[in-house]
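Notes to self, CHAT domain-containing protein:
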Amino acid sequence: MTAGSDTVLDLLPMVFADPGEALARAEQVLGGRPAPLHASVAHQVIGIWQRDFGDLRLALTHLRRARLWAARADSAEREADVLATLGVALVHAGRTRQGMDALRRGVERGAGHTRARVLFRRAYAWWVLGHHREALEDVRRAIPVLRQAEDVIWTARALTLRATVHLALGSVERADADFTAAEALWETTGQEHDKADAVESRGLAAFRSGDVPAALRLLDEAEERYAKLGTPTFMLNIRRCEVLMAAGLAAEALAEADAAIRALDGIGGQSTRKAELLLAAARAARLAGEPGTAIARAALAVRLFAGQRRTWWETHARLVLTESRHAAGRGSGRLVADAAAVAEKLAALGAPAAPEASLLAGRIALDLGWTADAERHLAVAARSRRGGPPLARMTGWAAQALRAQAAGSARGVLEACRRGLDVLDDHRMTLGASELRARATAQGAELAALAQKASLVSGGPRRLLVWSERWRATALSAPPTRPPADLALLTGMTAYREIAARAEEARMEGRPVPTLEREQRRLEREIRSRTLHMRGETPEGGDRFDVGRLLARLAEGDDGQLVELAVLDGRVQVLLCGQGRVRRFEAGLLAAAETEAEHVQAGLRRLAHPGAQARLPVVEAAGRRLEELLLGPAAAHLGSGPVVIVPPGRLHRVPWAVLPSLRERVLSVSPSASSWLRARETAPPPGGRQVLVRGPGLATGGAEVPVLAGRYDGATVLEHDDATVPRVLRELDGAGLAHIAAHGAFRADGPLFSSLRMADGPLIVHDFERLDRSPYRIILSCCDTARFATVGADELLGLVTALLPLGTAGVVACSAPVNDAAVVPLTLALHKSLDTGLSLAEALRDARAALPPDALHRATGWAFTAFGAA
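result:
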């Protein structure tokens, strides 16, 4: 490359506008016989590229050569600029003392405009090291000079850096002002990499202000911009891990951090970034319930940060290490002292995480019975309840609740828990995606547990019921935000159906499908990403649960009772609601009930096949043991009327009709008493349209559908090529009754991709969320449609739970694999009873009674459950 000095100097801004092109041109310059000045610039460009996107060792080699050529060119300004770049690279390599020394000499060698650029880079190094006050001082000195020189690019960089430092110190408003000013400047430049970085920084700002959907959207946009430039995104990985953890997606954050560490090691990348990624991985592992992994990652991060002289970061890593050791059961006086020292250091550094460390110290001290020490630390942590982002305020209220518990004030515990969960509710309702709402509840699990214990002590069964409801199925308390008319999302969902259908067809024909499966997974990630971007809409006038209202509604029925199962310290507490009162009974251990429920499920799977008659007594015996564990003495007080069961999320696999006391009665299940009340008070739509859907590939061909079509005059029948997802959704919207005979597939790894098989591919949960109003009653005569994934604190994600907040008042679905042929008489009998005006629960009871008494048909009846109240 032969060019004038100005052209070669243009390579420096180009490295952040078009990194690949800048690298190629710099190598071309060095391929000739460049003048010392030009050689210095070319080596610096290659050094910057390798520092940020490649091998840090190569970066240092090129930057040292750039400095030598600058000295030969006898240019103090050039040498100052290279020293600044070299200093930042040395800091990223963990050679902190050498790096800061190079930056100091750069400041001394430079003058005017060049010196301001060096000051900016020293400020960046201070930020990397966690010295925020020094960073602010250097950038404060640089910005006026850069502005006076009308250096748009470097002024925008300096504003972006200052905003990022403000965020680290918790000054969100100042950060927003600087980000806005920087963004306006970036729009006037062609610096595409810097623009992507600005979008990424705005994502961080959105997260710090509590807007998780906006943060996810902006970080995804930044990733798309980086991808077009072909540059790695390790800082973005770190920031996205932070947002994913706040959204309750800790396992995903851990996977992303570990993958980024492997990629960074593979290219010999920055030691500083590796330490930050290890810290992110440690935090994610702790939240994901993997304390051993968290301890290993955090301990390595501590060693790296200490070697890099990064006190701010080292202290945060020590916090995670101490939290993880506590989570692993290593409570001790030494651990209290460690947590207290970390809290003191974080406070001195002005870190927003200081209250979290004080809460940890107080919590461990309480476990050891050191009440005076606990009070001192918890009082400090409790100050954060008055202001700041939602999760910081929740930390403060958790500390206040623990203080009240230590003081023996049940009233104080309940007040603190109420205030803390109110903060979480406000935060949850900013989330539009039902998955994020459900997962966010994990952040209030401790407050909910404290409140339930305190309510049992101070207020008896009625107050325990109120607090059980306060924390039960909260993700279902309002409909998820309806997905926007996003063309890319709609296109992606259509492509997903087509690919999934092709993959299913290939499997049936015995053809390999890895390429199709990879594309299906890619489309799933894209769909999920776009739905997570949705911002929530806070419903107006949200109702608080009212025990009196519940008891009045129950009294309207035939002496019906509602059984809510709460879990305290691992044991099932049965709250029996009815006859104008709430009574409490203590049953068995939750863990034992879960094990027994799995035995029952296994038995039902065996009974779905002819010839398994001998297994029936085994399943019945397991049902008796399960009843003792789940209902205990309450079973003798159920009376003879209908029963509504409200189980915790971990008991969603229980086929309740197997329990002897529930087997022959009107039985329905609801995620919460509040959900049951809403269903009971939901009016059916005018007109009461019936929609009958028959999907492909059923062993019976959906034999009940033609019979039902003859029974319901004027019903819409969708089968064969008419049973496509768009057509089915259009007809289901606002229907009075829908019967869907289709293969169901439950996805434990992605419950919102659980599906019903239609003619053109899968009808997934995300599709149902697009309905304005789901059908008033739905019968799903296929396997696994009542299976759920447990997420968050006690939330369920699946097909049924997606329908209930959207206007469906009653669902009949199946929680186990069933015999297709045996389902036909069950569903026909069910519809026959519905014709007489019965509810779904009443009709299901009568349908079970009408089946032949053999094991196969009895198991089929037990596998189906009525949900809701219609």
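- The mean pLDDT is 88.
- The chain has five domains: 5-243, 263-476, 487-532, 550-668, 677-868.
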